């Protein structure tokens, strides 16, 4: 046990999702009581979490759900707040030192930006803040003296590997990807893919939306944009390799030609716990020791950008910069939603993201107002053209 770890003050935004529930599992193992839990809805689970951990505040962005939860927790001293402003309150709670950002979608953007302005340490899992507003978030963090510690396994790996050398000696990054459930398939073979097949990830236990993003390689494209902002490199300096075993989580290239990589079993709790306990390391309950002898072999291949068009679209968005990454993200979210509704073929997701980037004119400064405007028009474009 780290000295004082039980007294660590954290706020978890997105506590009912996949990352949120795993973060609470880490808190349970380390004896940490979160001071705040936040979510959009899922009141039954949120109530159970609140009763177990006894936070000071529970924030629910859906006002009606918040009212229901307030009644359900009426026999406790836990404060319940509702509306989007409640998530802002959760992200800037004075007693919270670390804010875990795990709300999927644009709803998680404003709270994390406010946490950055407040000088918090942000354990960042959701992609939207850096993808859509990387310029704003990195500036706010720099000006406030805050810190971003990535929770994504790939970015956590890079963060860890950077401890091996000086930043000025870094020449590039390696992002690894499992390839998802459809690695090696042709476009013809993917014409009739179902949501059930798309979320069947071979290595990682993740939520349904991010599982589809992994299947389309959109997830890796978004991670490339994130990595460029997080580590201050151009997207052209970031290499992507398909690594089916998900053991080498990512790496850093240094000036002497060395590649320093981080390996471990594919379990998100390792990256989550490291973000909460950095710079210390502790055993992670339920996660075993990696044995290379048992694995036997690790393989690496180039991604298929022709079949998995989302990756190429994200690389284009990164090169265009400005508001284009926000458009790519929003178009993808809208397309994935239609795919889950059975209204959109799997391969059409990548086509629509590419079309949105080609056909939408997105001039203007990167501001919250413009980001939200672009988010709206990119979603509308997908709904009109699917």
Number of E-state strands: 11
Total count of helical runs of at least 4 residues: 16
Spatial strand order of the main sheet: 4-3-2-1-5-6-7
Largest sheet: 7 strands, parallel
Average residue pLDDT: 94
Helix content: 40-55%
Order of helices and strands: EHEHEHEHEHEHEHEHHHEEEHHHHHH
By secondary-structure content and strand pairing, the structural class works out as: alpha/beta
Shape: globular
Percentage of residues in strands: 5-15%
The poorly predicted ranges are none
Radius of gyration over C-alpha positions, nearest whole angstrom: 20 Å
Q: Separation of termini?
A: 52 Å
Word description of this protein:
The chain is of the alpha/beta class and 386 residues long. 46% of the residues lie in helices and 14% in strands. The chain has 16 helices and 11 strands. The strands form 2 sheets. It has a 7-stranded parallel sheet with strand order 4-3-2-1-5-6-7, sandwiched between helices. The chain has a 4-stranded mixed sheet with strand order 9-8-10-11, covered by helices on one side. α1 (18-30) crosses α11 (268-277), α6 (128-144) runs antiparallel to α14 (324-340) and α13 runs parallel beside α15. The termini are far apart. The mean pLDDT is 94.
């Amino acid at each position: 046990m780290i000295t004082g770890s039980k007294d660590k003050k954290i706020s978890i935004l997105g506590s009912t999702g996949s990352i949120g529930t795993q973060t609470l599992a880490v808190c349970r193992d380390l004896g940490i009581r979160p001071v705040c839990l936040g979510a959009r809805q899922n009141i039954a689970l949120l109530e159970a979490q609140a009763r177990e951990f006894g936070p000071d505040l529970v924030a629910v962005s859906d006002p009606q759900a918040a009212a229901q939860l307030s009644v359900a927790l009426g026999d406790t001293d836990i404060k319940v707040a509702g509306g989007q402003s409640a998530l802002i309150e959760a992200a800037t709670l004075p007693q919270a030192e670390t804010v875990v950002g795990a709300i999927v979608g644009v709803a998680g953007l404003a709270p994390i930006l406010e946490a950055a302005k407040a000088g918090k340490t942000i354990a960042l899992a959701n992609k939207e803040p850096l993808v859509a507003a990387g310029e704003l978030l990195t500036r706010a963090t720099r000006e406030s003296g805050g810190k971003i510690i990535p929770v994504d396994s790939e970015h956590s790996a890079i963060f860890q590997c950077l401890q091996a050398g000086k930043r000025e000696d870094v020449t590039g990054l390696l992002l690894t990807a499992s390839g998802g459930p459809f690695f090696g398939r042709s476009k013809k073979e993917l014409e009739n893919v179902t949501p059930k097949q798309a979320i069947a990830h071979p290595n990682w236990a993740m939520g349904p939306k991010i599982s589809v993003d992994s299947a389309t390689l959109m997830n890796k494209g978004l991670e490339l944009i994130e990595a460029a902002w997080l580590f201050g490199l151009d997207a052209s300096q970031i290499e992507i390799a398909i690594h089916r075993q998900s053991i080498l989580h990512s790496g850093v290239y240094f000036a002497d030609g060395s590649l320093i990589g981080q390996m471990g079993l594919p379990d998100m709790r390792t990256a989550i716990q490291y973000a909460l306990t950095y710079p210390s390391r502790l055993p992670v309950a339920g996660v075993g020791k990696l044995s290379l002898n048992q694995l036997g072999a690790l393989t690496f291949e180039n991604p298929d950008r022709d079949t998995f068009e989302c990756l190429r679209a994200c690389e284009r968005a990164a090169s265009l910069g400005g508001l284009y990454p926000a458009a790519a993200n929003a178009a993808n979210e809208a397309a994935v939603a239609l795919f889950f509704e059975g209204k959109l073929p799997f391969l059409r997701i990548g086509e629509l993201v590419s079309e949105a980037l080609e056909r939408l004119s997105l001039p203007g400064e990167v501001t919250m107002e413009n980001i939200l405007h672009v988010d709206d028009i990119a979603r509308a474009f997908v709904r009109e053209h699917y």
